[in-house]
Write a structure and sequence with these properties.
It is an enzyme of class 4 (lyase). Helices cover 39% and strands 18% of the residues. The chain has twelve helices and twelve strands. Helix 5 packs across helix 6, helix 8 crosses helix 9 and helix 9 runs parallel beside helix 11. It is globular, with a radius of gyration of 22 Å. The protein starts with a helix and ends in a 6-residue tail after the last helix. Bound molecules: ligand PBG.
Amino acid sequence: QRSSEAWLRELAASGFSFPRVRARRLRIHPGVRSLVAETRLDPSMFILPLFVEDGLKSPKPLRGLPGHYKYPPESRELVELVSRALDLGVRNFLIFGTPGMRNFEGSEAWSPRGPVQRAIRFIRGEMGWKPVVMADVCLCGYTDHGHCGYPRETPRGVLIENDRSIEAYGRVSVSLAEAGADFVAPSGMMDGQVAAIRRALDEAGYTEVGIMSYSAKYASGFYGPFRDVMDSSPRFGDRRSYQMDPRNRFEAVKEVLLDAVEGADIVMVKPALSYLDVISEVKRSIPWLPLAAYNVSGEYLMLKAAAEKGLVDYETLMLEVLTSIARAGADAVITYHALEAAEALKSSKTPF
Ligand code: PBG
């Protein structure tokens, strides 16, 4: 291993230095800058999150996600949004649902009449298989306790039971596949969730339905606006006994490897912006595994709030953030900016 100092001395001696070499030559013409750009953003790499709620009469604006709405599961507006996205080149969607009724088990999560199941059936009926429909698999929005699995009293306090929870994820996944989901996306961070879901899907005959796993999902404060939208904060305790510790980078590689062995088709790092090192580590460790990154609600709101102050250029920030996530190594980005970014990339508003 040569020291960078030795490198520099050698390069300078060979003539690779100023004035023969001028790095700025590649930065003069915007066309040349694009020609040699190492990272390219394309709307086809975005996944747009969608929210549906049982019993809604009309779309409801979300205060934590300005510009986004909750939709009635079988609404014209929802289909129009998907169709607008398709026109802009955004072809992948991730649906979250709020049920009309919550209980300990979160049984609405696997009901054929659940909000997400109905929304998927409606989208399929109206637009066929053109959009890629992914569905979040979790219990936190469906249970009265707000945890992603089943809490149980133990001598050491309340713990979230792992193995009963992943059984439920299997049931949820099969009901989403029945409704017409292309991919299911387990976000509960229970051990063995991918294996349990793969087994359940295969036994039900849904071998073609894929799994995008939230493999390295951190216990993060950046989920605040999302939990407000979904009313899915845990009613007691927190999620630190299942979501990852923000202090860990290499553990993400372990989580991703476990999921890959269990049969995940796409793995994910979440959040994205404060975890670019994790994205990079995972991509370099297992480059052949498709990697998604979730540019979460708090990250989105941060930019919106900064823009509201009038001191930053929103479009520049948005494209810079998305570019950083791609540059770090993400193949796909789940982002609330998807439509705005697709629009900006189409117009000449891009700073690049
Ligand atoms: C549910 C889930 C969460 C998010 C996606 N799925 C929140 C959480 O773990 O509390 C967060 C998404 C976002 O903040 O945009 N397990």
